[in-house]
Structures are given as C-alpha cells and as structure tokens.
C-alpha cells in the first residue's frame, strides 16, 4: 500500500453550505501529516470523513485502501482523537484503559499502562480532576494503545498552554518513532505542526490550497524582492502565490522547480509559516476579488 488517504473531488455539504469542496489529495504512507488552515476551513469535516463519522456529499475517499468506517476491521485500523481531547470526566484513568481494552481488538494493554506510568498519571484519579494537559495525554494514550495503522488527531492541543502543547507533541513524536504508524494532525498553529510534521496540507475556504512533503515544498517556493513589476511579466515557470507592492518595490512568493538567477531579484528562502501564510493570503485576495464580481 502506497497511500494512507486518497480523496477525489470530495465534498461535504450541510444544508446549503459546503464545509468541504472539490478536495483532491493523496497522502502517501510513512508520514506525519499536518493539516493546517484557519478556523472554519473544513479541517474537522475532512478528518471526520476520513474517520468514517461522516458520509460524503460528493466525490470519493478511501483510507488505508478501504471505505472509512465500512467494517469493524476497518474501524480497528484507525484511531481518532477528537477536538478538545474528550475523555469521560466521571471515569478513572484505569477505567479508561479497561474500556479501551473492551472496545479495541488490537489493544496493547502493556503499552497503555507503561505510558500512563511514565506520564505520572495516577490510575485511581478521575479524568475530570486531571489538568488539560493530562487529559490530552490520556486521550493520546487511548489512541496509541489501539495500535492503529493511522492515527487522526483533530486539533488536540488547541486549548493547552505552551508547555502542555510541547509535552504532548514530544510524546507523539516519540510514539511515532517507536511504533511506526501514520499520523494526520490538524491545527491552526503552524508552529505546532512544524515540530512534528514532514508532510503538509493547507486547507482554506473549504478547499485544498497546497499539499506535499515539507522539504519539497520549501525547496520549490521562493520569496522574490526587487523593483516593482507586474506579475504577468514573470517567467511562465514562476507561479505567483502571493504578491505585495509598494510604489517602487514588489515582493512575490512564487513556486518554481528550477533555481532563479534573475539579477533583478533578491531571492530568499521561506519558513514553513511564511509559506502557509502566503497560500492563505492568496485565497483571501481571491475571495476579495470575486466578491464584488458576484454582486454585479
């Protein structure tokens, strides 16, 4: 198997509103995938479609070569940690492990108990009495002990403080190295994803704007700064992602497979956050342009 998740023209509509439209992606196996975008971009909808919790309105999606949630065996291959890392407030840590063992045929009880001990969680403590970071770690432990081939995490650290976020992501990184499984992790914080992800998907306005391996994306995108120039005058192999102008200067973010040697430009590398923001800025600018036209 070469793909963990494949989607073709995937869409989900709630009433008249499309939460996800024309989503076509192919996520290869062996990656920790970051799904990033602003609130309301469709990240949770895409992940719930992948987890089998929602049915598509349009298009197709396969996960690990099968229909999401199609059979008990398929469900056992995918772990899902929902937004706000839900646990049962009235149950103890030990209760959660017993429940996980009853519900999951591939459950690794030894790993779960070892991880709980390493985290310093007391088995008799109720989840409702744990800190936000401890609840997140408990939810991650349940997802890991399921021994999934794909673990889906929907903004699991959004409500945590910086220290708890760092500890959660460090634990996730260690687990992926130790147990060799695939991860799709969503967030609207690029800095969190940058720590752990080697494949990135940018989702804006319910559509995929960019997808690929992080190293490849950074190698093929550049910032150009120089005398003011119309984007149409750039070479055809330099695809403009975003453009900003002053009276005398232009700054472009472009995608180009070949090196850029034009002496008129100062060419600089982009950080991952710069790159993500450029794609978000492009879509925002496109929306501003289309809106007046739609009103005519």
UniProtKB/TrEMBL annotation:
PROSITE patterns: ABC_TRANSPORTER_2. Residues 5-230 form the ABC transporter domain. It holds the Pfam family ABC_tran. Keywords: ATP-binding, Nucleotide-binding, Transport. Gene3D superfamilies: P-loop containing nucleotide triphosphate hydrolases. The keyword Transport applies. InterPro entries: AAA+_ATPase, ABC_transporter-like_ATP-bd, ABC_Transporter_VariousFunc, P-loop_NTPase. One of its GO terms (molecular function) is ATP binding. This is ABC-2 type transport system ATP-binding protein. It comes from Streptosporangium subroseum.
